[in-house]
Amino acid sequence: MWTLWTEAEHLGAWHRPSAAFGPTYATVDLRPGGSYRMEMLDPAGELHATSGTYVELDRPHRLSFTWRWDGSDHDTLVDVRLSEDGGRTRVAITHTKLVSQAEADRHAEGWIGCMSTLAATYSTA
Description:
The protein is of the alpha+beta class and 125 residues long.
């Protein structure tokens, strides 16, 4: 699971809020202080991009990074914790420093979509 979150090829395969979005283009400089960028097309063909900086990396258990949508004037913080659970990996995402409940709701919906896309892309059923 760590690799799926930290390598550009894998991020590009699943990191989007729904299958209706086009593939994500990702770049990753995986080190504390390193940056990432992700770009994706929505169903109408509009580009959405986010970028940030890796704050903390504790392979294979935790990664923390800032998050900023292009055009936004504030960073938020995403903390991802990965834990083994009976041969599967449990993923816990905490997204903080959001400025409103509406923004929190949009991000929650987006993360749920991302996790659904991840599961569909890498299902080992």
